[in-house]
Design goal:
The complex is a heterodimer. By secondary structure, chain A is α+β, with helices and mostly antiparallel strands. Chain A contains 1 helix and 9 strands. In chain A, the strands form 2 sheets. In chain A, strands 3-9-8-5-6 form a 5-stranded mixed β-sheet, with no helix packed on it. The longest helix of chain A is centred in the N-terminal third of the chain and has 20 residues. Chain A is globular. Chain B is mostly helical. Chain B contains 6 helices and no strands. In chain B, α2 runs antiparallel to α4. The chains are: A alpha+beta, B mainly alpha. At the A-B interface, α1 of A face α1 and α2 of B.
C-alpha cells in the first residue's frame, strides 16, 4: 500500500509540474470585431476559427491580385489559414497562432475554386473562390 | 494484487519520475491542440504514465511491454508528425520531449530488463511452456 501511495504521489508531482509549466498559451481570445467572412475596415477578408471549425466556410477574393485574409482564432487551440490548389498541393501557408488574430497576405492567384484549411486540424476546411 | 517490495536505487526513481513527467507533458501538449486524434494521443500518454509507475503486480510483471509499447507509441507520433507536420514551435517542443522520453525509456529498459531480444525470447519460451502445460493437462483429463 505504501508503494501505491508513493507511486500516486510521483504521478501527482509530475501532473503539477506539467500544469504549472503549460498555461502560457491559453489566454482568452479577443472578441471578433467583424462578422465572419465579411470585409474588415481595412478591406481584408475575415475568417473566424472557433470550436475547432471555421465559422465561415466560403470566402471570395479577386483574381490576379494579392489579397489579405485575417484569421481570427478564438480557440485556445492553435490554427492557421492555408490554401490548397486543385492538385491538392499547399499553395499558401499562414502562421499558426493561438487565441489571436493574424493577417495573411496571400499572393495573387488565378481564378478558380480552392480549399482553405487549418494545417493543425486538416478537417477544418472552407472554400475560397477566386474570381 | 500489489507487487512485492523491491529496492530501487535513487537513479532508478529519478529516471522513472522523469519518464512519467515527460509522458504527461507531451500528453498535455497534445490535449491543448484539441480534436479527436490529439485527445486520444493525450489519453494514450496519460495511461502509459500510470502504467509505467503503478505498483500492481500485473503492471510490474509486464512493465517491459509498457516500456517497449511507449517507445513505439512515441516513435510513431514522431514519424507521423515528420511526414505530415505541421511544423510550429509547440510541435518542436513536443517532439523534443518525445525524443527524450524514448532515450530515458531505453535506458530504463536496459537497467531493469536487460537485452530486449533476450527478454522477448524469455517471454516467448515462458508462453510456449504455459501452452504446453495446458495442453498436457487437457490431454490427461480427457
Amino acid at each position: 500500500m505504501k508503494r501505491l501511495v508513493q507511486s500516486l504521489g510521483l504521478v501527482a508531482v509530475a501532473v503539477l509540474a506539467v500544469a504549472c509549466s503549460g498555461g502560457g498559451g491559453s489566454t482568452p481570445a479577443p472578441a471578433a470585431s467583424a462578422p465572419a467572412g465579411s470585409p474588415a475596415a481595412d478591406g481584408s477578408i475575415v475568417v473566424v476559427a472557433k470550436d475547432l471549425a471555421f465559422v465561415t466556410t466560403s470566402i471570395t477574393a479577386p483574381a490576379g491580385e494579392a489579397f489579405q485574409v485575417t484569421l481570427d482564432n478564438q480557440d485556445s487551440a492553435p490554427h492557421n489559414f492555408a490554401i490548397k490548389d486543385a492538385s491538392g498541393a499547399t499553395s499558401y501557408k499562414g502562421e499558426i497562432v493561438t487565441s489571436t488574430k493574424v493577417a495573411n497576405n496571400v499572393p495573387a492567384m488565378a481564378a478558380g475554386t480552392y480549399q482553405f484549411f487549418c494545417e493543425v486540424h486538416p478537417n477544418m476546411t472552407g472554400t475560397l473562390t477566386v474570381q | 494484487m500489489f507487487a512485492s517490495r523491491t529496492s530501487f536505487r535513487t537513479s532508478d526513481v529519478v529516471i522513472r519520475a522523469a519518464i512519467v513527467a515527460l509522458a504527461l507533458a507531451t500528453g498535455y501538449i497534445h490535449f491543448t491542440l484539441g480534436g479527436l486524434l490529439f485527445t486520444l494521443n493525450a489519453i494514450g500518454y496519460a495511461v502509459a504514465a500510470v502504467a509505467i509507475a503503478i505498483p500492481l503486480a500485473l503492471a510490474v510483471r509486464f512493465r517491459w511491454v509498457v516500456r517497449l509499447g511507449l517507445i513505439g507509441y512515441a516513435l510513431t507520433a514522431i514519424v507521423a508528425w515528420a511526414i505530415q507536420g505541421p511544423y510550429f514551435q509547440t510541435a518542436y517542443i513536443a517532439k523534443a520531449i518525445e525524443v527524450t522520453l524514448i532515450v530515458l525509456l531505453a535506458v530504463d529498459f536496459a537497467r531493469m530488463d536487460g537485452n530486449p531480444v533476450a527478454v522477448v525470447k524469455r517471454e516467448l519460451a515462458s508462453f510456449a511452456s504455459l501452452v504446453t502445460n495446458r495442453s498436457g493437462t487437457a490431454g490427461a483429463g480427457a
